[in-house]
# Entry
Amino acid sequence: MKRIVILGATGSIGTQTLDVARRLPERLRIVGLSARHNEELLRRQAHEFDVPPAGLECGEEADLVRLARLDGADAVVVAVAGAVGIRATLAALEAGKDVALATKEVLVAAGELVMAAARTNGVRVLPIDSEHSAVFQCVQGSPADSVEKVWLTASGGPFREWGRDRMAAAMPADALNHPTWPAMGRKITIDSATLMNKGLETIEARWLFDLPMERIGIVIHPQSVIHSLVVFHDGSVLAQLGLPDMRLPIEYALLHPERVDAGLPRLDIARLGTPLTFDPPDEARFPCLALARRAAQSGGTMPAVLNAANEAAVGLFLEEKITFPAIPEWIERAMDAHAPQPRPTLTQILNADAWARRQVTQDF
Ligand SMILES: NC(=O)c1ccc[n+]([C@@H]2O[C@H](COP(=O)([O-])OP(=O)(O)OC[C@H]3O[C@@H](n4cnc5c(N)ncnc54)[C@H](OP(=O)(O)O)[C@@H]3O)[C@@H](O)[C@H]2O)c1
# Structure
């Protein structure tokens, strides 16, 4: 029996994690839950999973760090939206708990610190993101130095076939209409439309799999059947396939290396009825990809600035204060104005994050 804390229990990943626990009551026990606004749902979840008040945190000032260190928990699912999860992730690792990580922004902003904390404390960061789960599954049983390249697949988002003029007039409702993955949170859905999600994921993969950026590629695969591919030094390519259902990577992160039947729907490969296609991304229409690469190459505090400026710009777009193409423009402006500090401390990362948010939001 594994005892689990979920940070961000009321969100898309949080509720799907609870569904996995509901299907595997003899394997997973929920001992802690957090939410920011949705107190009513949190209360219902606590009742269903019999979580005592000491295992609950709710509100704008929710103490995620306390919950991340909760006595008696074996693993912490980090599924809050954004860099707000950094301190709690570090706290969980330092308290000797495995982290099942959905919140990619944590690794983008503080990847070096987080992976060092996992190593020092002898615990693991297990990916929930479907692409990284796919890579993680493909490399099982192979020596770490046998990987030549990783290909992260991208659906291409709702604007895959939109021209620049049409994208310039896109409203939040257009961008929130994701073609393949159901009911994701608002922030990641906008990131999927700008392709910043894939940019963030390359940096996430860089830390999780200890690979240089040039060995992490992106390929547009609109059918979302293959969740990522690994090329090995002998030329062999392994891929992981599945339905677009986050409960599978969540289950794998929580039960690895075991595979248990949680009654999830199956991919019927003989009845797909569609060809699987793969194309390079159009970096001219989706400038966030180049910004993410530039941030990773600059290193230090620059990825934290990229991430925070993106969080702030996405927030402004959702409030209809800026246009869709202005999202990468604001990120680039913040990056241009930032002199990155190498090998940053947590305080320097959090300061860079706060500075970048101010750069974007101060005029609104
Ligand atoms: N959804 C997916 O399919 C998917 C796939 C791969 C990776 N991810 C990653 O997983 C993370 C979560 O995504 P999501 O789609 O589940 O987001 P979401 O639906 O927006 O849920 C976010 C959760 O975090 C809580 N939260 C938000 N802001 C917070 C704050 N400032 N302090 C404390 N708690 C806060 C929310 O509480 P309230 O409900 O009370 O507001 C909610 O429980 C993101 O980093 C995303 O990139 C998601």
Summary: The mean pLDDT is 97. The pocket of NAP is lined by residues 8-14, 35-38, 62, 79-81, 84, 102-105, 129, 181, 184-185, 188, 246 (CB under 6 Å). The first strand starts at residue 2 and ends at 7.
